[in-house]
Design a protein that fits this description.
By secondary structure, the protein is of the alpha/beta class. It is about 40% helix and about 15% strand.
Length: about 350
Amino acid sequence: MSKFFNSKYAKLTPYTPGEQPQDMQYTKLNTNESPFPVSAKAVKYVSEAAEKLQLYPDPECRQLTQKIADYYGVGFENVLLTNGSDEILNFAFMAFCEKGAAFPDITYGFYSVFAELNGVEYTEFPLNDDFTVKLDDYINTDKTVFIANPNAPTGIALKLEEIEKILRSKPNRLVIVDEAYVDFGADSAVNLTKKYDNLLVIHTFSKSRSLAGGRLGYGIGNKDLICDLNTIKYSTNPYNINRLSAAAGLGMIEDDEYVRENCQKIIDNRTYTEKKLAELGFTFTNSLANFIFAKHPLVSGKEIYLELKKRGVLVRHFDKERLTEYNRITVGTKEQMDILVKTLKEILEEKI
């Protein structure tokens, strides 16, 4: 820390992204990226956009914003594009948390970081022993609610009627539903934004739309919420979406059939892998995301993580007390999952 660093950030614990080691070729199942490339149309659009990189991008990102609005049946004024969903989450903590924020104690790690970064008082409500959300905690709080649905790293999702209960309980309290993984089996709350003005739904292109490297996200909600978020955007970075990412996003929205096919492959591979893991003695949560949250009764999660890494397979391990016996395993191609299962079988044969 330099002598110039602002003291109010001195105790800030930054978010820890998934590791990206370069020492060998890994089967990479640790950061929930899509194993599938962007579509040919996205590549074509990016190539065309590259010819105009000397010009600033459209700050309203009008073409892609309208495509997203049409896709969900909402208005242009109900959509905001951002540099990854992390940016709009940060905007939300800046804009809507004057009374504080509330979210689970086990969820996306950036929520607490954004709260601390922006000086927001926050409450972490403990999940139940089975990692499900206690609805009453969120029904009764006056703080702005952040719910990852499906949750990370558990993959467990709330039903829409449960989200509605939270929305209806306090109409003057904002609920933000982070649907980064919704395309892998959960139900989206986007249509509820037409009914409730206290709901903001956040999506990303990083998972189901193969654009983790493009940094593209968006929020859908009441036009007044989007107006508020635009105030923050235009006060920080009006050109937040670069031309190449906007072009790639447009291609992926237009190639929705390709996206749906890839999502179904991930769902099928998740089911296949869960079956194989169960045969090896693993247990796991009911994940509706593009990952599996699994543990073994006889070998610790940390040991499995380290042994997998040693053998060229990366998964995500968390040292937090309630999570330490688990590993989060991104669902990749069938070939990648076969490598995982084969390697786990070898490890268990040695350790048990």
